[in-house]
Amino acid sequence: MFVILAALIEKYGGMATFVKGVTRFSARNRIRVGQIAVLSSMVFGSINGATTANVATTGSFTIPLMKQNGYPPRLAAALESVASCGGQVLPPVMGASAFIMAELIEPDYADIVTRAAAPAIIFYFAVVISIELYVRKYGTDTGELITTGDSPALTSQIRGILGNYEYLGMLVVLIYYLIIVQSDPMLAGFYSIAVLSSLRFTRAIYDGTIGEDDLISSLRRFGRENIEGFRRGAEAIMGISIMVAGLGIIVRAFVVTGFAQNLSTQLILFSGGNIVLIVLLSAVASIIFGMGM
C-alpha cells in the first residue's frame, strides 16, 4: 500500500516538491549539497518505507545534483544508498520488518514507531556529520554552500507550504490513523491514498478552471498521473512481494524449529541480564541476519 502511495506522490510531482523544499531550507541554513540529498531521501523515505523505491525516486534527482557539484559518482551513489536505507527505520512508515515485528510480538504499531524515532534521527545525524567531515577534508563540494540570497518572508514561506495541501493532507491522515487511531497500517495507507488522490483531483479542477489549462486537459493529466502511478507501484510491489514471501518463510522456519527462541535465550544468558549488553548483542544479531534477508 505504501509503495503505491510513494509511486503516486512521485507521479504527482511530490518528489520534486520535496527536493525543492529541502533545498530552500538548506539554503537558509547553509547546508552542503550532499546533505540536501540525504535530507530529501529522509523526507521521502519516511512515507514509503521501501529502500529500493526510495533510491529509484530520490536518486534520480539527488545523484545528478551531487555529481554536478563535484561529488565522485561512487560517493554520490553511496550517500543516496545509505540515506535511502535509513527510510526503513524512520517513522511514520517503516520497512517490512516493522510489520513483521508487529505480527510476531504484537505490540502496537504506534509503540514501534515511537521507539524507532530516536535511533532513526541519530542515524541521519551521523550521515550528515560524515558528509561535512568528508567535504572539509577533500573539498569535494565544489558548490560549497548553497545560497539563494535573502530569505523569503514568513508569510511567503507559509503560503508556499500550504500550497502543497495534497501532501500535507495525506501526511496528516497517515499520522492520525497510524499514531492516534492506531488502526491497521494497510488501512492507514489506503486512507492516505484516497485523501491524496481526492486533493489532487481538487487541484486538477482548480487548474482547469482558474489556471492556464482548460478543464479537460487538466483532468486528462490527472488521469495519466494516476495510471502511471499505479503502474509504477505495481511494478515495485512485484519485487517486494517476492522478497517478503521469502522472508516470511525464513522467519517462520526460525520460529517453528525453535531457533528464534533458543537464540533469544542464549543472548540473555550470555549477557548475564545486563540490558545494555543485550541491546548490543541483539543489534549484532539483527545486522548479521539482515545481511541475508
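the 2nd protein, sequnce then structure:
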Amino acid sequence: MIFSYLDGEPIVPLEIKGKNGQWLKFHAYVDSGAGYSVFHSDTAKSLRLSYIKGDKIPMTVGNGKQIATYRHRLKVRFANEEFYAQINFAPDLGVGVNLLGQRSFFDRFTFCFKSWKGQLDITPKV
C-alpha cells in the first residue's frame, strides 16, 4: 500500500478503536528509530481512555530527556489490516505529532521509504 507523504513527511493515517467502540482517525509520523509508538495524551482523551491507567514506562527521547509514558494494548486499523497494537501515551511528548514506532508495526509490516517520490510503501509481512 502506497502512502503519500503529508507535508513532506512520512506521516500516515490509522484508526484506533475507542472505549465506546467507535473508530477514530489519527495521523502518526513513521519513526524507524523509535522502538515504541508514542502518542499524545490528548489522543487518549479523544478515545475516552484514561491513559494513566496503563503501565507506566519511562522512555528516553531524542534530546536525552526521560518522559513518562503509559502503555496500552488497543485495536487498530492500519494499511488495510486490523490488529492489536501496543501504544504508549505521553503528556509530555515534546513533538507536534504522534510517533509510530517499531513495536507492533515494524514487526508486522515492511516499510520502504521512497523519499525522492514523497511516498512510503507499506506491505504486510507474510
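The longest strand covers residues 66-78. The chain has a mean pLDDT of 93.
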